[in-house]
Design goal:
Layout (H helix, E strand, L loop, with lengths): L2 E3 L5 E2 L14 E3 L8 E5 L3 H9 L8 E4 L6 E4 L1 H5 L8 H7 L4 E3 L3 H16 L5 E5 L2 E5 L4 H4 L3 H16 L5 E4 L2 H7 L6 H12 L10 H9 L5 H12 L6 H9 L4 H12 L4 H27 L5
Parallel strand pairs: 5-7
Antiparallel strand pairs: 1-2, 1-3, 4-9, 4-10, 5-6, 8-9
Helix pairs in contact: 4-6, 8-10, 8-13, 9-10, 10-12, 11-12, 12-13
Length: 306
């Protein structure tokens, strides 16, 4: 299989401009499409999409999920993003950019319930699932072709349609030969979370779950010599283990001096790590590192600290 239709799921050995069965132009084509098996799913503005689904009056309105004026944006719908709102933005700046926005406090109990429904549908296809957050997960569909009667790419497309029909939540997904290849092929501007995760993994040189054992990850999580970024990267990699690792991530959070990294670690332990939390942690760590570099330079010049 080198092409299929997103509407009727026709599949064929050659790329075509329109589906020969339903005439749809929504054709997915790639020379190796039938061989790809590592899938990445990431819901569209998940929290905001769930709120809009549950309240149709919000459909055409800009929606921001976050705290009060002194809080930060957890996520925002695409209407709000057009106005300049982004994840981890201070709420007062978000409301200045989009004063007409409807602000809703996050309801994690509801989002966790919806996440479980989505992951439950995915688990019917493969047990090899690693969730990165409530709305994002990797799936290994290797060896499922005989079970589902279709190549993994077509199975993934059918899952997307099932989720969108049942949940009424947008479910973008991609598929590649490896997890890192899929992340590189994806649109990294789609979510701040994807950028933040890539940044974390890139900063921690060679820090890939596939290259490290569980013991090495736990050591990186708990060692006093581990920097905040590597500690958070280890927590992200380990969080998929669920309750078994939760106490160790919580302990690492208590030992972390960086407040926002500590908050991110606590969120990872609860299974509530989102793009705003991860980006805020990265921003604070960047500011801390810049300040640490600046003060010795001031001391060398005799300027003193401000």
């Amino acid at each position: 299989m080198k092409a299929f239709c997103r509407d009727c799921f026709w599949s064929g050995g050659e790329a075509v401009r329109r589906c020969p069965t339903c005439a749809s132009p929504r054709i997915v084509a790639h020379p190796e499409l039938g061989e790809l098996a590592i899938a990445h799913m990431d819901c569209d503005a998940f929290y905001a999409s769930v709120e809009k689904r549950d309240n149709p009056e919000l459909r055409d309105k800009p929606v921001i999920i976050g705290g009060g004026k002194r809080g930060v944006v957890s996520t925002a719908c695409y209407i709000a993003r057009i106005k300049g709102v982004r994840s981890a933005m201070p709420m007062f700046k978000a409301l200045k950019a989009c004063p007409e926005a409807v602000v809703i406090r996050p309801d994690f109990a509801k989002y966790r319930a919806e996440s479980k429904r989505i992951l439950g549908m995915a688990a019917q296809l493969t047990p090899l699932i690693q969730n990165l957050s409530l709305d994002e997960a990797w799936m290994d569909l290797s060896g499922t072709e005989r079970l589902h009667g279709a190549p993994p790419a077509l199975t993934l497309a059918r899952l997307q349609t099932r989720i969108e029909d049942a949940m009424r939540v947008g479910q973008p997904a991609g598929i590649a030969e490896t997890a890192l290849a899929e992340l590189d092929r994806g649109d990294r501007s789609a979510t701040a979370w994807k950028d933040a995760l890539a940044t974390l993994l890139d900063r921690a040189t060679g820090y890939r779950k596939a290259e490290l054992s569980r013991d090495q990850l736990v050591l990186a999580l708990e060692s006093p010599a581990t920097g905040p970024e590597r500690r958070l990267a280890a927590a992200i990699a380990l969080a998929a283990e669920g309750d078994a690792i939760k106490p160790r991530i919580e302990a690492a959070a208590q030992a972390c001096a960086n407040r926002k990294v500590r908050i991110a670690l606590e969120a990872a332990a609860r299974g509530e790590l989102d793009d705003a939390t991860i980006e805020a942690a990265l921003e604070e760590e960047e500011e801390s590192a810049a300040e640490a570099r600046r003060l010795p330079a001031l001391a060398d010049r005799g300027d003193g600290a401000p």
